[in-house]
């Protein structure tokens, strides 16, 4: 039987990474970033030890965007395994390939994160066998060579896994009773949904930017890919929400009354009232 990855392996470990997200990824001056940065250009806040010099004050320094990103453990995998602990500073000739592989690995680790959660759902037992097979395949891919990872057709891999995740969603949301609703990909930007009964709803890819979900029932909802930037989740119930990630919560607003699934951290910027 395939064992699922440990939770820590699917979270960014900056101490064992070469600051890849701080170098490989581009960003533009906006409400999320104080400056422009091109891909492959080290962030000005990246220190010699690959740590962020303003990590404890990112939001107040204009780098809110950094607080809502997680590589799902891809950074340390690429740094310590794929490239054997030799950084782009030590071997500059590997830099561009390291960044390309990081993009691929991040997507693979995101899939591992979702597959691991799906396997932990008793309601998804009918597809557990297929989920284990998919998990084993993705894990094998993450251990591939630089050449293999660069040549990998990630969209095809994602498509195969997505079918299983959709079936998992249907099985889990069925526990909500009635006929599970679908608001997949819905444009709900800025919508007033205070107290909305969304239990068991499919909100995959929904745009909930700045939406008011105060006191809403989001238990057993599928939130994979939902955009929760500045969404007000104060007092909302996210118990057993499906495929929710910590970065999504970090991008939202909430308070001490927001009910979170087990294993999630309440973001430091949320209000205490």
Structure overview:
- The chain is mainly α and 273 residues long.
- The protein is 32% helix and 0% strand.
- Helix 3 (95-119) runs antiparallel to helix 4 (128-142), helix 3 (95-119) runs parallel beside helix 6 and helix 4 packs antiparallel against helix 6 (154-173).
- The longest helix has 25 residues, at 95-119.
- The chain is globular.
- The N and C termini lie far apart (45 Å).
- 38% of the residues are buried.
Binned, the helix content reads 25-40%
Count of alpha/pi helices:
7
Question: Which outline best applies?
Answer: globular
Compressed to H and E, one letter per element, the order equals HHHHHHH
Strand proportion: under 5%
Instruction: Work out the radius of gyration.
Output: 19 Å
Low-confidence stretches: none
The major sheet is characterized as: none
How does the helix and strand content classify structurally?
A: mainly alpha
Mean pLDDT: 94
Number of strands: 0
